Structure formats: C-alpha cells, structure tokens
Amino acid sequence: MKSHKTALFLTIGLWCLYTLTLGKGPRNGDEMVLFFMAESIVERHSLDIPQALEAGYPYGKRARDRRFYAPTEALPAVVSAPLVAAGKGLLPKNASRVMTFYVPGTFAEAATAAAMALTAGLLFLMIDSLGLGTRVAGSASLLFAVATMAWPYSRYLYREPYLSLAIVAALALLLRWRQRADPRALFWAGLAVGAGIWCKREIALALPGIAILALAPARAGAGHEPAVGIPWKSSARALGRFLLGPALAVGLLLAWNLSRFGDPFTLGYPDADETGKALVGFGTPLWVGLYGFLLSPGKSVFLFNPPLLLAIPGLALLWRRDRVLATTLSAIVAVNLLVLSTWNHWEGAWCWGPRHALPWVAVAMPAIACFLVHRPRGAVARVVWRGAIVIVTGLGCGAQVLGVFVSYMTYARHSGAYYKDIATYQITFNPWRAHWEQLLFHLDSIRMGRIPDLDLWQCFFLAEGVSPLLIVGASAALGAGSIVGLLVFWRRASRESVDQIPQ
Questions:
Q1: Rounded to an integer, what distance in angstroms lies between the CA atom of residue 464 and that of residue 444?
Q2: Average pLDDT in the 29-43 region?
Q3: Residue 301 CA to chain centroid, in angstroms?
Q4: How does the average pLDDT of the chain come out, rounded?
Q5: Which candidate, 277, 315, 420, 487, has a CA 20 to 30 Å from the CA of 367?
Q6: DSSP 3-state assignment of 293?
Q7: Residue 85, in any domain of the structure
Q8: What are the φ and ψ backbone dihedral angles of 61, each rounded to 5 degrees?
Q9: How far apart are alpha carbons 395 and 305 in whole angstroms?
Q10: Which helix (H) or strand (E) holds 420?
C-alpha cells in the first residue's frame, strides 16, 4: 500500500508538470479529429464529426445514415469530453472563434497528460514489484517521464499515450498474477487490454507478448528469488478470465462498425490519402522502416529516446532475473517493430519523432531499471556505468525540451523537408538544428520584450489577450503541485534500500 501512495504522488506531480507545459491545443488533422469527437460528445451526444468536413479535413467515412465518422477509436475522446466541456464552460459569451477552439482543445490535452502520468505511476509499481527497490523504480519512472517522448506526447491529442497506459496496466496486472496467483488480476489485465482496443487497435501487435506473460505459470516470489511454482490447475478458467475483456471489446467494436457501415470489418478509413496512397496497407519495404525507426535522424527511437540505449544491456540483466518477462517485453517490441516498419505510413504522419514507438519505450523501462540497479565491479567499469546513465539522461532531457517548447509543425510543415508529394515521408528529414535555432530565437524575443511564440498555452493565451494575472496564477499552482508531488514522491521512494542483481 505504501508503494501505491508513492506512485500516486508521482502521478500527481507529473500531471501538474505535463499540464504546466501543455501546448495551445490541436496542431494537425489527427489531433483535430480526436478533439472533434470529444466536442461532438459534449454538444450532440454523438461521435460523428461534421466539424472535420467543415474544416476541410475529410479523414473518415460516411455511415449508412450519411453521418461522417472518423476511424479513430472512441475511448480517448470519451475520456477527454468532460475536460472539453469544462473548457467550453469557462469561455466568455463574446469569445473569439480562435479561443472557442483552442481553450477546450488545451483542456482536452490535460486528459492526455493524465494518461501519460498514470503510465509513469504504473511503471513505478511494475518495476518495484520486480524486487529492484523503490529508489530504482523511481529513477526509471522519472527517466521515462522527462527523458523520453513521454513528455512531448503528454501534450498532444494522440492515442499513443492511452495505448501505452493500457499495455503497461496489463503487464503490471499480469505480473501481480504471476507473483500472487491472484485470479482477479487476470480479469483486470484482460479489461486493460479491452480498453486498449478502444484506444488504438494497434494493441493487437502487443498481444503475442502479453499472451506469453498471461500463459506463464503463476509463481509466489518476486525478484530473483526462486519461484515456488504454483501449478496452473484451472488453465481454461484462468485464460477465460483474461480473454473476457478483449472479447467483449472486440465484440462491441464489430457491432459498432456494423451499425454504422453495415459491415463489422469496415473501420472508417478513407480509401486513400491525398496522393492516392492507401492509408491501410503494408507497402513500405522492411529495410526502409527498420532504418527509419532505428537510425534515421527524424524518426530514430534512440535519438528521440536516448535512455533506450540502456535497455540493450539491461535486457540481458532482466533475462537473469525473469526470463518470462524478458521474453514478453522483447516480443512486444520485436513484433511492433517488424510489422510497423512495413506500414504505409510508418512515420506516424505529422508528429514529433517516431509516434508509433511510444508504447515500446514504456515497455522497455523494466530492462532499463535492471541496468540502473546493476553496479559493475571495478572502478573503471563503475565510471563507465555512471557516465552512460548521466549522458543518456542529459541527452534525453535535452531532446524533450526541444520537442516540448518548439512545435513540431513549425519546421516540419513550412520547411518542405518532412513530406515529398504531400504524403511521402523523406527519410533524410532532420529537425534537430532547426528546433534548436527556433528555441534560441524564441528565447531571444523574451529579451527583446516580446511574447515568445513557444508551443505553450501560456504564450498563446497571453497573445490572445487573456489576463496575465490569471495565467501566472494557474502556472504557479501547477508548478507548485509538480514540485511538491515529485519531492514527496522521491522522498518516499528513497526510504527503502536497493537490491542488486547477482553478478
């Protein structure tokens, strides 16, 4: 129970930090579609989005009743809807058209921030359950929160933060099943997967890895202590508990498609993008996608998430401690990498870094935690170990600062270097120098006494004439909440000793 309270302080502190650094609302079509769905729930109690057609973004399909629906899964919009309603409720009657869009849009982003903060909190509990100690679990969770794409994506209206939350929740609950033989954990893990299906259908790529953990025999011990081997006496019943949630989610999804389009397998995607290229398909050569995800300057998971480099040796250390979990995490990452590398739009459309890889980053954190807890013998080896941690942490935080304070749309869209022929991603795209230069330019505008055009809600609302006192007050409250929450979290996490993987 103490660990749960500690995780709660982490979640609250991170939500305040993420909300403090939110942007001004939806930036591109994918984000707008999710916002339009949430807005439709609030205003018309429906999920159709005629607003998309009015905005000139026909991303979706007309149903049998001629209403227009997006292919986007509904659960993120449902979660965002109360915040959209709150944002609309705060608007004055004479609010401009710009403010009526961006104020509720910014509020909707706060729901994404909550999903990302909850993911970090669950990662803390998951890593702590491995017997690595709360200090290491806290370090790994903070590394995920501020040195990976989790921070920039906490402020976008994309579905990947919700997908990451669903996958991490399922894995944490399945670990509880293995360690305590608690059948309720299987049921809740299945519900987490079912919720993930309604967040993003891409969770299907994680199911082979999740199934490995779900089908593994329950064990009584945690960490590297030998398991007592509780036999799987009721395998059919246990598997049924786990599959109930996914089966219910898939059934509801098929029924919803049938009611809208007359075909349970019609998802609502347009037939093609602006160039005539199929939106749904696997036409990218495998080597192109692999190069893009691993080595390209604009989409490499290692450039945008430097701590992932620690997961490579960390996976070997995790293998010593828990081979089933190591196999599970490896399978989730490998299947996603191989399949999505051939996806027509593997780059994730307009976005900061490799959007599709965000769940992989979360999944890799237990392996990174094993590297953090591993203290090698020898003075030189320990210097290299500490240096590697410091370097990837610094590079990771620096990369996220560029992604948070400078909009990914500014350079990508206006430079013409992101897409060729409207929707053909250019593998040579490199945002790093341009984002750094823009950050320096915006900071220099502060010195000149101008409002900087940083991708922050404070800058946007100041430029729109919102009271500076109101903005400063809200920012101060969020800043104080972040500092207090994270300080209390770290103090609680540091109280317990740290175990070490046997050499």
A1: 21
A2: 93
A3: 13
A4: 89
A5: 487
A6: helix
A7: yes
A8: -150, 145
A9: 8
A10: strand 419-420
3-class SS shares of the chain: helix, strand, coil, % to 5: 65, 0, 30
Q: Give residue for tokens 């970090």.
A: 120
Neighbour-count burial for 221-260, b at 16+ CB within 10 Å, e otherwise? ebeeeeeeeeeeeeeeebbebbbebbeebbeebeebbeeb
Characterize 262-292 residue by residue with b for buried, 16 or more Cβ atoms within 10 angstroms of its Cβ, and e for exposed.
eebeebbbeeebeeeeebeeeebeeeebbeb
Give the separation between CA 345 and CA 425, rounded to whole angstroms.
Answer: 8
Read off the DSSP letter of residue 270.
Answer: -
Interacting residues of 408 by C-beta distance below 8 A, sequence separation 6+: 27, 152, 350, 351, 352, 431
Tokens coding 354 = 């490799």
Asked if the structure places residue 472 within a domain, the reply is no
Does residue 430 sit within a domain? no
Q: Are 214 and 187 in contact (CB under 8 A)?
A: no
Give the tokens for residue 145: 């929160």
| Cα–Cα distance, 250 to 191 (Å, whole number) | 12
Q: What confidence category does residue 388 fall into, taking pLDDT thresholds of 50, 70 and 90? A: very high
359 with 207: CB under 8 angstroms? no
CA-closest candidate to residue 159, choices 108, 121, 104: 108
Beta bridge partner(s), residue 424:
420
Q: What are phi and psi of 82, to 5 degrees?
A: -60, -35
pLDDT at 92: 85
Q: Which of 324, 369, 315, 313 is nearest to 128 (CA)?
A: 369
* CA distance linking residue 396 with residue 139, whole number of Å: 14
**Residue 64 to residues 257, 259, 263: CA-CA distances in angstroms?**
11, 8, 10
Position 447 in a domain: no
**DSSP string of 295-360?**
T-TTT-HHHH-GGGGGHHHHHHHHHHH-HHHHHHHHHHHHHHHHHHTTSTTTT-SS-SS-GGGHHH
* Average pLDDT of the segment spanning 67-72: 92
Bridge partners of residue 62, in order along the sequence: 68
Do the bridges between strand 419-420 and strand 424-425 make them parallel or antiparallel, or are there none, so unpaired? antiparallel
Tokens of 349: 């459309």
The SS3 assignment for 172 reads helix
Range of the domain at 397: 2-409
Per-residue confidence band for 255, with pLDDT thresholds at 50, 70 and 90: very high
Calpha distance 217→179 (Å, rounded): 10
**Polymer length of the chain:** 503
pLDDT of residue 501: 41
